[in-house]
Amino acid sequence: MNRESFAAGERLVSPAYVRQGCEARRSHEHLVRLLLEKGKCPEDGWDESTLELFLHELAIMDSNNFLGNCGVGEREGRVASALVARRHYRFIHGIGRSGDISAVQPKAAGSSLLNKITNSLVLDIIKLAGVHTVTNCFVVPMATGMSLTLCFLTLRHRRPTAKYIIWPRIDQKSCFKSMITAGFEPVVIENVLEGDELRTDLEAVEAKVRELGPDHILCVHSTTSCFAPRVPDRLEELAVICADYGIPHVVNNAYGVQSSKCMHLIQQGARVGRIDAFVQSLDKNFMVPVGGAIIAGFNDSFIQEISKMYPGRASASPSLDVLITLLSLGSNGYKKLLKERKEMFSYLSSQLKKLSETYNERLLHTPHNPISLAMTLKTLGEDEDKAVTQLGSMLFTRQVSGARVVPLGSVQTVSGYTFQGFMSHTNNYPCAYLNAAAAIGMKTQDVDLFIKRLDKCLKAVRKEQNKESHVSGVDNYDRTENVDIEEMALKLDNVLLDTYQNSS
């Protein structure tokens, strides 16, 4: 309602009451005006009524919501299901145009405005999280792997003779396949073991650059956030190498926005050397549904070049999700979540350390990894590999998600490349281990319940291993007794799993 509508309302309802309602609406409009003027995340989160008013005002700016609109084209924002329309707040046209994902759509001024505001808010949050000199970013409706591919394809036009990507090893399939999908040959640089940590082999990186020749290398593809005992790459040193040899540098910062240490590494790398783009996931950093990522960088023209590489229009859903989330939280709310995550990391670390010592295991010393932790699995029994795998299965059936068990000697082939010791980021890590991470949104009760269930599972695995060992001893002692150990272990396994499923 505008002033004329309120004035007309005064003929039907007491003017004092109408003026009060008008002032209430102005308070909502004031928040919207500040957002549009400053282009920054508000300090305090908005209430739902302000959010819905804002989204409704944007949606009615799109042509599919015009009263009396007559669409005679093939893409006119028609939606068969009213439920689908409501799910998307009637933003049907998506974002961008056929030539640029960041371009304004004449048919959809509201969706275009939503896109611009979202990118502006996300840029503000990236600066708040620690990368203060970032110049541009945009939300892309693809997860991290495909967003990395988009960066590599953009670099192809700048470096037409390049065919290799230097990649310090991290055992995660999507970042590896992002290079294959873009049509390049990954050059895997094995990590070096320093104490318990797996760190970047800088000498091997530089040697490979000299061997292949800088002109034949598309970029260095480094990583921040990762599973312990691997730790973030030495970004500052890699950035200096890239600057010295004139090689682009793309950083996989998948869930690094929530970590001040990861963001500081990116900031420092850009300060002392070269970082062309860094890519981060929306769902892992902002607690929204999977399907979006942020591509950011320090050169405005290069980030625009990446956005123009995206073919066609794009879904507005990831942009809408993160916009609603950031406006609901406000910058203060997001900073609070970052602070709580750090506290949860310390708490998880202390609790996992206590539990590991109870079982004569230990928490691996990985001080350079600010998110993920690892606990050794050396004392589960004689058949260690089977026990480690069984522990992972038991945790899963007890509804523990996110924890990973990593046995020794696992072999995995990804897009034709075979990795020894897959999941451990190296060919021969000294021991099997279990991973757990303190990610944004984790609560104290999550840690407590995880430790409780892990404790029960460790006890159960040890008990079963002891039974199998005893049965094996009896069989060796009395050869006349025909004991099928595998059958007995299977029966014990089934009984054990049934017991725990019933008690969950």
UniProtKB/TrEMBL annotation:
Task: Output the superkingdom of the source species.
Answer: Eukaryota
Recorded name of the encoding gene: SEPSECS
PTM N6-(pyridoxal phosphate)lysine: list the residues: 284
Q: Which GO terms describe its biological process?
A: conversion of seryl-tRNAsec to selenocys-tRNAsec; selenocysteine incorporation
Q: What is this protein called?
A: O-phosphoseryl-tRNA(Sec) selenium transferase
Q: What is the organism of origin for this protein?
A: Puma concolor
Query: Which family would the database say this protein is a member of?
Result: Belongs to the SepSecS family.
Catalysed reactions, as listed in the record: O-phospho-L-seryl-tRNA(Sec) + selenophosphate + H2O = L-selenocysteinyl-tRNA(Sec) + 2 phosphate
Q: By its UniProt entry, which InterPro entries does this protein fall under? A: Peroxidases_heam-ligand_BS (IPR019793), PyrdxlP-dep_Trfase (IPR015424), PyrdxlP-dep_Trfase_major (IPR015421), Sec-tRNA_Se_transferase (IPR019872), SepSecS/SepCysS (IPR008829)
